[in-house]
Amino acid sequence: MDNIEQYIEALIFASEQGIRTEEIMYCLQASFERDFSSDEIEASVAAIAKKYGSNDFAIEVAKINNGYQFLTKKSYHTVVSLLQIQRSKKKLSQAALETLAIIAYKQPVTKTDVEQIRGVNCDYSIQKLLEKELIAITGKSDAIGKPILYGTSNMFMDYFGINNISELPQLKDVSSEESSIGEQAE
């Protein structure tokens, strides 16, 4: 039991997505048949994060989407991105990216709403985004016919490194005077 940090480190390492404090507590309590407090878990995670914060490691513990995950440090992103580009077979088409953006900013949203914004059929794009687990079905609308509502998934949050949707860039952050059309009236 003295090496509780190693067990937590193993859980973080083995988790494909961020692992929450509650999940760590559950696994440890089931394994050791004793109670663990969230403060105890978070103190251990902080010690692990400090250990991996040194320059001896190329990875670090990051808190993403209210969970902990091992990620490559920023100084190694260039070389890792080259590997991912080389291996990438799951590229998103422009249509899928547009559909994903609409869903992210307008969620929960129906397929009809997305199609009205894009002006084209979105069946294929939505199917591909569901397959890649970037979006999820969040429920059904109260509108006639009870259409399915879509929203972003935890995989979306992990992929973009955000904890919640409010961290997405706002239109004012990406727009500029150069992208405006016409002359401004004074």
Automatic annotation (TrEMBL):
GO terms for biological process: cell division; chromosome separation. SUPFAM superfamilies: Winged helix' DNA-binding domain. This is SMC-Scp complex subunit ScpB. Pfam families: SMC_ScpB. PANTHER family: SEGREGATION AND CONDENSATION PROTEIN B (PTHR34298). InterPro entries: ScpB_csome_segregation, WH-like_DNA-bd_sf, WH_DNA-bd_sf. Keywords: Cell cycle, Cell division, Chromosome partition, Cytoplasm. The keyword Amino-acid biosynthesis does not apply.
